[in-house]
């Protein structure tokens, strides 16, 4: 395409040529002067126009006789005022198909959910994707089913408790881990607030740093953590109502059952065995038990790796038939540029976790849960740039689907917990008039709705656990 503009005023000629395939615009300028023609040529890179997109895993897990919601904001690339909408179709029977959400109350295995991204300017269908439905029947199952969840603050805050432990959707579930689930004796998880996937690939040796049982030295050696940590964990267990700081209570408060293995006075393992390793905080170095005494060693004397088999054997845990991983928010939420996030190391580490688990539990099923793909509104108490966060987490969502979807033959599954999050109503809202009052002298009754608790959709936690409950019920 070539556009020519003539200007008698400038006595010049400008032509613009658009190379569509490379998205580059080249400017050519010829100036006519008395002495002749001087030609100046320069190039300018122009970014391709923003294009909307949608993504959904190839399988959706839904629970029978329960409201299964599919919200649009988590699965669309941006929820911005473009003339793009998502329409629902397929063989499934919908109870509602609204602008922001569709609901299926009576899902049928083998049914389909079809999403179409439609531009309203010309009503062009930009993209269509199809997901099949697998249904888990709620409340059925006579045998115990061992399940474990590795995660961040969502797991630490027990997003799963309503669906897995309260409602009876998953009978006889046995949750496996080192951290006590508050209010449910005998149930455990592996949630650690603020953690990334990379956190699980590092040693923990500080007083208020949650013990990581997965990062272990190779060979016959077993790392049991830091003495100061286990002493504090015992103190918190014995005196839970003391005036603990946030870090002391948050990072050690749910290790009560495990803390019984350690001396409350010193933090050392009570019945140490040969080749046990610990970190002594008072001495500031690592120690190895040689069968008679603890001797000083260096961290670099050993090769360390993520070892799921050693974790379950040293803690004498029942091997979970389903291991769910629920990470990604802390990894990518606040990346500088959503379009240039490097997922390569995250993907590599996830493959290591999967391989380590399946080596230890060959008949197990590994579940990647899609983390929160939408993080609320711009009016929020901490002032988070939620629009950019949403973009970062949509790219995370896309990466998980592209790299790990349709790998059931490898015992790898995706459960989309994020589609249950209502971006507008799924969060708590502040009651602090200092930030909700429109202006200082305002005397009216209306306030600004200000979201609180970023980026945790606490009111949506019960619905976020439904898809995981459905998966467990489908494959138990």
In short:
The chain is α/β, with parallel strands linked by helices and 476 residues long. It has 13 helices and 26 strands.
Shape: globular
Total strand segments:
26
Strand content: 25-35%
Main sheet attributes: strand count, strand direction, barrel closure = 7 strands, mixed
Helix proportion range? 10-25%
Oligomer: single chain
- Give Rg in angstroms: 27 Å
Describe what this molecule looks like in 3D.
The protein has 13 helices and 26 strands. The termini are far apart. With 476 residues, it is of the alpha/beta class. The strands form seven sheets. Strands 12, 13, 14, 15, 22, 23 and 24 form a seven-stranded mixed sheet that branches. The longest helix has 19 residues, at 386-404.
Provide tags for this entry:
seven-stranded mixed sheet; alpha/beta; single chain; 476 residues; 26 strands; four-stranded antiparallel sheet; globular; disordered N terminus
């Amino acid at each position: 395409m070539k556009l020519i503009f003539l200007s008698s005023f400038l006595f010049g000629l400008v032509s613009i040529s658009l190379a569509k395939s490379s998205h580059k615009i080249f400017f050519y300028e010829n100036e006519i002067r008395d002495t002749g023609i001087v030609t100046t040529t320069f190039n300018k890179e122009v970014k391709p126009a923003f294009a909307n997109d949608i993504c959904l895993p190839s399988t959706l897990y839904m629970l029978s006789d329960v409201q299964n919601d599919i919200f649009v904001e988590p699965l669309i690339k941006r929820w911005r005022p473009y003339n793009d909408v998502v329409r629902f179709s397929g063989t499934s029977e919908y109870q509602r198909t609204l602008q922001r959400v569709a609901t299926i109350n009576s899902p049928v295995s083998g049914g389909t959910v079809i999403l179409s991204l439609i531009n309203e300017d010309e009503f062009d269908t930009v993209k269509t994707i199809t997901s099949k439905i697998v249904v888990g029947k709620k409340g059925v199952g006579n045998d115990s089913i061992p399940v474990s969840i590795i995660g961040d603050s969502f797991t630490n805050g027990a997003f799963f408790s309503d669906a897995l432990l309260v409602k009876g959707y998953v009978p006889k579930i046995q949750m496996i881990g080192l951290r006590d689930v508050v209010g449910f004796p005998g149930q455990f998880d592996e949630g650690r607030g603020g953690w990334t996937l990379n956190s699980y690939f590092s040693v923990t040796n500080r007083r208020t740093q949650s013990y990581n049982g997965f990062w272990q030295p190779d060979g016959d050696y077993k790392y049991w953590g830091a003495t100061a940590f286990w002493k504090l964990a015992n103190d918190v267990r014995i005196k839970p109502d003391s005036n603990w700081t946030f870090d002391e209570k948050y990072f050690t408060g749910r290790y009560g059952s495990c803390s019984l293995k350690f001396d409350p006075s010193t933090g050392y393992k009570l019945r140490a065995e040969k080749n046990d390793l610990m970190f002594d905080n008072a001495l500031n170095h690592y120690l190895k038990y040689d069968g008679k005494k603890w001797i000083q060693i260096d961290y670099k004397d050993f090769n360390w790796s993520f070892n799921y088999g050693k974790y379950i054997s040293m803690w004498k845990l029942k091997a979970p038939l389903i291991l769910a991983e629920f990470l990604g928010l802390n990894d990518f939420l606040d990346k500088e540029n959503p379009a240039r996030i490097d997922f390569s190391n995250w993907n590599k580490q996830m493959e290591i976790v999967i391989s380590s688990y399946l080596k230890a539990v060959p008949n197990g099923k590994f579940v990647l849960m899609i983390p929160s793909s939408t993080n609320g509104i711009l009016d929020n108490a901490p002032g988070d740039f939620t629009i950019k966060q949403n973009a970062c987490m949509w790219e995370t969502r896309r990466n998980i689907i592209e790299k790990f979807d349709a790998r059931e033959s490898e015992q790898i599954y995706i459960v989309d917990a994020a589609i249950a999050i209502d971006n507008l109503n799924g969060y708590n809202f502040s009651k602090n008039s200092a930030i909700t009052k429109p202006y200082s002298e305002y005397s009216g009754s209306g306030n600004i709705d200000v979201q609180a608790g970023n980026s945790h959709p606490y009111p949506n936690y019960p619905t976020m656990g439904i898809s995981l409950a459905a998966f467990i019920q489908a494959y138990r």
